[in-house]
Design goal:
The complex is a heterodimer.
Chain A (H helix, E strand, L loop, with lengths): L2 E8 H14 L3 H23 L1
Chain B lengths: L1 E5 L3 E2 L13 H10 L5 E6 L2 E6 L1 H9 L4 E6 L4 H14 L5 H14 L6 H8 L3 H17 L5 E3 L5 H5 L3 E3 H14 L5 H15 L4 H13 L5 H9 L3 E8 L1 H14 L3 H14 L2 H8 L1
Helix pairs in contact in B: 1-2, 3-4, 4-6, 5-6, 6-8, 8-9, 8-10, 10-11, 12-13
Classes of the chains: A alpha+beta, B alpha/beta.
Amino acid sequence: MKVNRTITIEKELWDKLKVYAALKKKTISTIVEDLVKDLLRRVEHESRNTN
Amino acid sequence: MSQEIPIDKIFIGEVNVRKNLGDLLPLINSIKEKGVLQPILVRPSEGKFEVVCGARRLEAAKAAGLKTIPAIVRELSDRDAIAISLTENLHRDNLDLEERIVGYEKLKKANRNIKTDRDLARLLNIPRTKIIEDYEAYAAFLKLSKEKMKVEVRPTKMEERKKGKSIPRQHAVLLERTFKKVESKIPEEEREKKYVQLAKVIAPLEQKVAKRVLNHFVVHPEKPVEEIKREVLEVHDIPVTVNFTPRVFGGLVRAAEERGITVEQLVKNIVEDWLKRGGYLAQGKSS
């Protein structure tokens, strides 16, 4: 079960995202999810180090 | 060598291609203060002297009350006189579009050896593309002048461009070129109107944005200009739907709460920040 969220991105940036997605053979949704996971990992790592 | 020639013996004739002398006041003041620093070029003609180069200096000297002006006198044929006048003004970028075209045409008429734009460019020592573009911009000028829209060769006030009163030369060249490619796909009775509408839309835009509008027009010449403008200029944001696993989404909600923003805003920030940093380039290289 997944959670859907819709965001809006500037067209110029969206064009870059689209090209990157095509190169990686991934969907834009997967790329965005990976970026979010990456951020969460970093946040978790930073908070562990701070503690 | 220059000599002092009575001003009333000098006239501005047909070989001088510059007709619009612009604002003479600063030059008049300078002449009153320092005199004419650079001699004008004249040729003998019917007992008088005709100006080849220096019409502005002559008029300003008259207005400053001078009786004579320093001048270099040279025997010149029509074709050489026109070529010198045109070359001097072109290199100083002094001529408006109409003056340039009149000058080119005069020179072609006076010199039978000029058969192509290439010949003309070689004689005037300017790039051939400049001549081609001047003719294209002039074709645009003829279509737009009915609407009292000017094609400007020098930078113009943005206000004038926004009001649809002027369009930069390079925009006019692009418009003329682009329109020609697809005009056969537009009903004849609509062409003139569409041309003017496009000119008014692109006039205030940066050149690269104007190009985007014209490129879109080439693909959809049948569309109303307003629609083309909207499609190119008003599409800023694109919606993207992302599917998160509940664990990731939970983390996202907490991170958004910590930052005091919505989940959507946080995701947008993450993606835009990554794109602006060029992160996708680095990742693309390493994998």
